[in-house]
Write a structure and sequence with these properties.
Chain lengths: 350, 305
């Protein structure tokens, strides 16, 4: 009798190992922040923790698709995420975001006009503005012949002899294909296979001249001189310029992609209350400026007067007005266009 | 009710239940889900349409693809990536064996105290994350690093050797990452080796090379095979090392699968690719099983003779 009940107890114990521990307490003072890697100054989290008592755990991702896949797979317990404009509609339509009604937060008053009512989130029901930037290319003027490159994607896709083997492209299919589309003057979201063919041919011709495809360590790669030219983001270029003053950023005249990133709260967030506190806190001009000063991307908050003078002098951050017409906001492509892009990328790398 | 009255079958079932449930929860169910996904059509925003009819499209896609001109063409991209991964994994296994076997042999000749110290030393790299170890190699091998600098200083005629962002760098990274998986199983068979057999070989006139080839190597074969599997299987699916050290210019099967679940938002294709990979691994495991059965027979026959 005794032995048997022991046995039953043992197997019961084994079974209970599979049961989830579901109990939830009232929102504890913690926050899970899922952000692009290297896209937030860590010291600012300490300030947030000191002012609110909420402890933040930050985790990083490298593309909107990684974020989407994580959220779709379910079970990811993040409170604040940073989706780009090009994926906001997908997230909203897929019912993955929680409505936070950002205009009701007290610091929304500081949000700049153009960022208050964007087309990807009308009325800012689901998101608050974070940073924005562009994807052009950067080069070291000390190491190119004549010290200057033309402001055209041609320099990047059909590099001069001296630069061949000394350049890098981002390892993100959408960034590379966007740039190639702008250079060839075709729609970034083209569903025409012939366009895809032209893009692939251009990229295949460029590939032997590339040292690598990589989206990591972009600041260090330029600053250490590992490459002379690379497809790059403006903020990353500016940070490299601080370390090596001869680095320049190019706004190609054929057009360049502009991205705008936003704070949002996933529907599955375990601490939505804390998430709102964080988002409101980030819209305070001093905190928004602290981010821009640390990682060199412009924000959507009225905080320009707080911007560090070292950035104000750089073209990469303080874009000259005549380039405004070259910016192409990133689009959200159809499935058909996406499939073509995937085929371009697989064939390119295959 | 007494103990004897419980049926042995029920007892067995109860005692086995933790194992069975674990296997079911950790292997059968996830694999089942993956197989199910591979048979469904993809959704507009990633994910799959769970209600749809089953279809084999994602498996057809593995080998055929609509070309940019609209015709269905044989698609070598995935097969190439697979072949490249198999070759890379095979090469890694061979290199791990070449480096690992002598180390294991040497370790087995040490005093027990020192042996334990060596085992500890070999496992120390595992205390650090794989990603960090790969980045360490990035720093060691890079153009302005001391290895490349001194190589180029020694061999100026080679005209600027680059060590990074090529297959060499990927091999270094993979061999470094998986070498302990080769050393430890070989060491554990060599440790139990009856060295009197080697002495007997010497007595019968074998030189060192013969003793190694005819006695030590065959007797350590179970360890070598286990090590080879432990190295081959993970390096076949490796995608971090090729991405970091290979410069992202070529796709390995692991990168391809990751891409399907990420940017491409094509879960069914990702699942069917995973199944293809799994099939190849199964084949290699079956070959191993056949080998060990044959080996067992040979030993039996040897014992009878």
């Amino acid at each position: 009798m005794k032995v048997k009940s022991m046995r039953l107890a043992m197997s019961g114990l084994a079974l209970s190992c599979f049961a989830a521990f579901g109990a939830h307490a009232a929102e504890p003072k913690e926050l899970f922040f899922y952000n692009w890697t290297d896209y937030y100054p860590v010291d600012l989290l300490a300030k947030f923790e000191k002012e609110t008592g909420i402890k933040v755990t930050m985790d990083g991702y490298d593309s909107n698709e990684t974020l989407l896949a994580k959220l779709q797979a379910g079970g990811a317990a993040y409170d604040v995420i940073v989706p780009s404009q090009s994926i906001m509609q997908t997230l909203i339509k897929q019912d993955l975001l929680m409505e936070i009604d950002t205009p009701s937060l007290s610091n929304f008053q500081y949000v700049k006009g153009p960022f208050r009512d964007p087309s990807f989130d009308p009325g800012r029901k689901f998101s608050a503005p974070y940073l924005w930037g562009t994807t052009g290319f950067s080069y070291d003027s000390a190491r190119v012949p004549g010290g200057k490159l033309d402001d055209s994607w041609k320099e990047f896709f059909e590099p001069r002899k001296e630069l061949q083997g000394q350049l890098a492209a981002l390892d993100t299919s959408s960034s590379v294909i966007n740039a190639a589309s702008h250079y060839l003057n075709v729609d970034e979201c083209s569903e025409n296979p012939q366009d895809a063919k032209r893009i692939l041919e251009l990229l295949q011709k460029q590939k032997p001249f590339l040292k690598m495809y990589s989206s990591d360590n972009t600041v260090d790669r330029m600053a250490s001189g590992e490459v002379i030219m690379m497809q790059n983001w403006n903020g990353s270029t500016a940070r490299a310029t601080l370390q090596k003053s001869t680095i320049k950023y190019v706004y190609p005249r054929e057009g360049l992609a502009m991205f705008q990133d936003n704070f949002a709260v996933p529907k599955s967030a375990p601490h939505p209350g804390n998430a709102k506190i964080f988002i409101d806190w980030m819209m305070k001009p001093e905190n928004a400026a602290a981010v821009s000063n640390a990682i060199a991307y412009a924000n959507g908050i009225q905080s320009d007067q707080l911007l560090d003078p070292k950035w104000k002098v750089m073209d990469a951050i303080n874009m000259p007005d005549e380039y405004a017409s070259r910016l192409r906001p990133e689009k959200e492509c159809s499935n058909k266009a996406r499939e073509l892009q995937d085929r371009i990328w697989s064939k390119l790398k295959g | 009710m007494s103990v004897s009255s419980t049926s042995p079958a029920l007892n067995r079932a109860l005692l086995l239940s933790p194992v069975v449930l674990t296997l079911l929860a950790l292997i059968a169910i996830p694999l089942g889900i993956m197989g199910y996904i591979s048979l469904l059509p993809r959704n507009t925003y990633g994910g799959v349409d769970w209600q749809a009819q089953w279809q084999l499209q994602s498996y057809v896609q593995l080998f055929f693809q609509e070309g940019f001109d609209g015709e269905l063409e044989l698609n070598w991209v995935y097969a190439q990536a697979l072949l490249r991964s198999v070759l890379q994994a095979g090469g890694t296994t061979v290199l791990c064996f070449l480096f690992g076997f002598p180390v294991a042999l040497w370790m087995s000749s040490l005093t027990p105290r020192r042996r334990n110290l060596m085992v500890l030393l070999i496992t120390i790299p595992f205390w650090t994350n794989l990603l960090i170890r790969n980045y360490a190699w990035l720093i060691i091998l890079r153009e302005h690093g001391w290895v490349a600098q001194s190589l180029n200083a020694l061999l100026p005629s080679a005209g600027g050797i680059t060590l990074l962002y090529n297959d060499f760098a990927v091999s270094v990274g993979l061999v470094y990452s998986f070498l302990p998986f080769m050393i430890l199983p070989i060491y554990s068979t060599l440790e139990k080796l009856d060295w009197r057999l080697v002495e007997a070989a010497y007595d019968l006139g074998a030189n060192r090379w013969h003793a190694l080839r005819r006695i030590i190597l065959p007797l350590s074969m179970p360890g070598v095979i286990a090590g080879a599997l432990l190295v081959f299987v993970p390096s076949l699916g490796a995608f971090i090392t090729p991405a970091i050290l290979g410069g992202g210019k070529t796709l390995m099967i692991g990168n391809l699968i990751q891409q399907q679940f990420g940017t491409a938002r094509n879960w069914p294709l990702g699942s069917s690719l995973s199944f293809l990979l799994l099939a190849i691994l199964l084949v290699s495991l079956v070959l191993y099983a056949l080998y060990s059965r044959r080996a067992a027979k040979t030993i039996n026959r040897g014992a009878k003779a």
